[in-house]
Amino acid sequence: MPLILNKSDLKGTCYMELLPGPFCGRYWNEGSAFIPDEDFFYLAPFIESHFGAYDHFGINNEIDRDIWQRILADIDTALSDTPEKFSEDERDLACHISVWVRARLITHDRITILGM
């Protein structure tokens, strides 16, 4: 499960986009990270538990720093307490997302999830 950082590596359009900052009126932004849609589903419950307005198909998923920190803490806890519930690929993707999100939250106060 790759975390794709270069738009030229995208094949098709079935991706979730993690955009540093607020929605800027367009998709496929430089500086965004992209996750294949089918690989993103296992993360959705962690997001929904802290951001009830999450919409897998929407653009109004602006999640601020404090909420992201809680989401990432829950993912970290789940991975360490119940690693058997996650495949190696899921653990790898979660690690990459965690590192990427935490690095972006140093310079941005929110990261927006742009849905399908």
Could you tell me the radius of gyration in angstroms? Answer: 13 Å
Can you write the helix and strand succession as a string?
A: EEHHEHHE
Roughly what percent helix?
A: 25-40%
Please indicate the count of domains: 1
Structural class: alpha+beta
Strands across the major sheet, in which order?
2-1-4-3
- Beta-strand segment tally: 4
Rounded average pLDDT? 93
Please summarize the sheet with the most strands: 4 strands, antiparallel
User: Which outline best applies?
Assistant: globular
How many alpha or pi helices? 4
Tell me the strand percentage band.
15-25%
* Unreliable stretches: none
N/C terminus separation: 18 Å
Q: What is the topology?
A:
Blueprint lengths: L14 E6 L12 E4 H4 L3 H7 L11 E3 H17 L6 H17 L5 E5 L2
Antiparallel strand pairs: 1-2, 1-4, 3-4
Defining traits:
116 residues, alpha+beta, 4 helices, single chain, four-stranded antiparallel beta sheet, 4 strands, 39% helix, globular
What does this structure look like?
This protein is α+β, with helices and mostly antiparallel strands and about 120 residues long. It has one domain (about 5-115). The protein is built from four helices and four strands. The chain has a four-stranded antiparallel beta sheet with strand order 2-1-4-3. The longest helix is centred in the middle third of the chain and has 17 residues, at about 65-80. It is globular, with a radius of gyration of 13 Å. The two termini are about 20 Å apart. The model has no long low-confidence stretch (mean pLDDT about 95).
Can you describe this structure in just a few lines?
This protein has 116 residues and is of the alpha+beta class.
